[in-house]
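Sanity check

After download, print the first record. It should look like this:
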Amino acid sequence: MWRQVHRWQGVVLGLLLVFLSVTGSILSVDPILQRFDRNVHDLEGFTVADVLKLSARKNPYFEIDRIRVDFSGRVLLRGADAAGSREVPFNPRNGRLARKDRPRPVMGLVNNLHRNLALGPTGRPITLVAVIIMLGLVISGAFLLARRLGGFSHLLRPVKGRGVDKWHSWLGRLLLIPLLVTLVSGTWMSLVSNGLLPSGVDDGPSYPETLIEAEPVPADELAVFSSIKLSDLSELNFPIWSDWWDVYVLRQDGQLSFIDRQSGAVLSQASAPFMSRSLDLFTLLHTGQGASVWGAIAGLVSLSVPFFTFTGVLIWLRRRHPKLRGTVAPEKAQVVILVGSETGTTWGFGLHLAQRLRDAGKAVHLGAMNQTYQMPDDATLLVLVATYGDGTAPLGASQFIDRLPGYQGAKQFAVLGFGDKAFPAYCAFAIACQHALQASGRQCLLKMADVNRRSAQSFTGWGHQLGVAIGLHQLLLDYTPPRPRTRHLVLVEREDFTGYDGTASAILRFKAPEKRRLPGFQAGDLLGVVPPQDPVARLYSLASSKGEAMAELCVASVESGVCSNYLLGLELGQRIDAYVEHNPDFRPARSAPTIMIGAGTGIAPFAGMIRKNSKQPMELFFGLRHADHDFYYRDAIMQWCSDGRLSGFHPAFSRHQDCAYVQDKLRAAEDVIAQLLHQGATVMVCGSSRMASAVAQEIDIISANIGLSLNELRSCGRYLEDIY
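Expected structure tokens:
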């Protein structure tokens, strides 16, 4: 529900919300400019009596009926003389009256546009609806963000993901409080202007009367005003001169004092009406009048609304359900493909799968998971589903499990989960769908598989298994998600290794061609390499950053590995087509120790991170086969240990000396790891999924001894994985 409310409010009224936010930002400049008005003076040391006496001496013919101090700190006197009635700024230092404020047409127009779209009273209900919707967007966005991060208690967790989706969420969390303050105050003001809330102006207390019937004493002769600081004054209203019983009304913030015009005695005091004080507070919070710094902040916050609108529409466009020609109704289909997606990425895979099955002669239906389907009994149901946030259903599949009992037919099924292993609950909703389908009595055609970070290789591998299972042995799924434009990189250096079993590997260093620049990247980001004989890109962890003027990879040969063997066959001077895919969730801790755990070519990102380290303790656990064969970065590691960039090094040789694996070294260094975890260390793991699984078990055991758990470390961004 929250996502649908959030989505449609933003899409339908996006332009109006942008218009109101931009005009509000322009108006926020006004309080700042007013602070630099030449009639703003330092009021410290002055009293109301000083103003009265100085004005009586310098402006004897100007009869004052009100003194007030406005939000910018100007002293304003309202009164009349031969020139007529007016309110003018007053200089408390020399007693001069300045000119009456001149109208400012531009700001006046912007103000009218912001408050009522320059339509007068007719436009006020429109802006009220708009500001309520904007408030609803912030509230629904807060609920969505909390759901993504695992609850409101986890709102400070790192926001994982990439692209506009991540920045939309990250900036929303950063600006959540100021946005709420600005919108709640704006809603209150709009309700008042539309007459739906009282302003409190007419709800003041009853005025007392002067007790003595006599000629009034001039204000500058009343001693009481010598005790009232000018800096504390909000407003002082004078009594009507001809009304002997009328009194002075003094307002200081929310306090009203009624002063006898004869004796200067305080007859009574009362608080200003609650609604009046509330309106004053919300006016300050919404406009910044009286708090120019907050006004500047609120103005900048308002400018975030165009960003949220633009990125929100982009996200919505990506999530729309694509159509495919040549498909059939579900009751006539041999294969029914259902897609559940949060960002729309999974639809690309589903569309490609449907095309390939249709081209192979299958009657295919492609649809969304949030519907109920009637299918033939012999149809095959294929579910391609992503997991959103902390293990919850994506928008396109939130009703699937509840609707599943209404599904008819399709007695066999297969589930393919999409996710990112940087998230703790990797493919959790796909697993829930697998269990629900099994519980419905349907037969599992294939063991559930998963695709990490849109991996084209994983999708292709699953396609081979699916083809065999449904009798299509030539089914080839070669879908590559949209990626950044590739660029040429030139191989300038290589360091070759021959493994214990003869496997070739190498450290390869690339530079941009002459007169070209490398794209921006950091160690731990990924380099997508597109081999000439296959359009499917492969991702490799980068062992360098752009500042080192090279893109460094560590590559080992894989049996039938198209890209790895292509890279290892390159000669110096040859070029590759590649692009950078940023991996911002795989970074070492900035102000705490880092425990790095890698095996084989999984050392690559750590090499680049250690190379740049100068302050933080870093412990490296490195698993390899043989010290004389595949010891990548051997000399560099020794140098890092001696110069302090590495605080500890724990190699594990599985085919040499003690025949240990990296998890064995973790167990042996349990005390060191426990101490570092107690100090807030981040654990980083890079390498094969089998190694990562064994490492996770050991870290879970070690962390439990100090009152932590692996899930806790994951949830607070202290257990990071880059595995394959």
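If your output differs, re-run the checksum step. Summary of this record's structure: The chain has five domains: 2-31+106-200+288-314, 219-273, 321-469, 487-581, 594-723.
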